[in-house]
Amino acid sequence: MNENITVGVLALQGAFSEHIKLLGQASKEVATSSDRRWSFVEVRTPQELAKCDALIIPGGESTTIALAAARSGLLEPLREFVKGHRKPTWGTCAGLILLAESANRTKKGGQDLIGGLDIKVNRNYFGRQTESFEMELMLPFLATRCGDDAAKSFNGIFIRAPVVEKILPVIEGEQANKNAPDETVVAPARRAEGSPAMSQFLRPVEVMATLPGRSRVLKEKLVEMSLEDEIGDIVAVKQGNVFGTSFHPELTKDARIHVWWLKEAMKIVQSQKQ
To answer: 188 in helix, strand or coil?
Structure first.
């Protein structure tokens, strides 16, 4: 008998319906090599979250999502889901901010973080809404795992996007830094529960995608800054079961990242249910 794999999309604010639509499209491709059925649900309560095997935290406004999660009693269950149980989780834009262990340039009064990725993010790194942009990205992880078509570039949509400013060491406890500026916030510590979760927790952060540094995006600044070659801005990372992107795949019609992520989630869920 087929067994459902339930993927939730946090539906407190932001582009959750767009994710649901692309997940449905992607599942048709993943289902060809799986004997399990997919179920995609909107998550607004702890009870709905408890039914999920994997989770997407969509783009939107990270402070608003965090406040809504706290008011609906979801903040602590989300931390347990991501950090305690280390279930497959993907955050896009605002979701990446919430999954970071540290964030700077937060609004006055700061904001709550879920954590799960040992990174520091810079909120709104690329500026205001009017400075949003699109850029073709080369995503090697798609090319190695999704077949020949995956070698094509992916249209990255950046809307008030964060960037991964720093890869942090893997530690048990809070990523505290006494020299950090006042607007920096850190996620509370949560211990991974059980050896499978701990093995995921101990994995290092992988850089999955970069784009040229901001000096190259803003070409008029290139000459005056006289920068040498650089790694570029980090816009996608993965640490064990937790994945994050600065950009919005859900706002495109391209389901390749959703296909890749469902395959990754399926492998993890199947191993956990054995």
So the answer is: coil
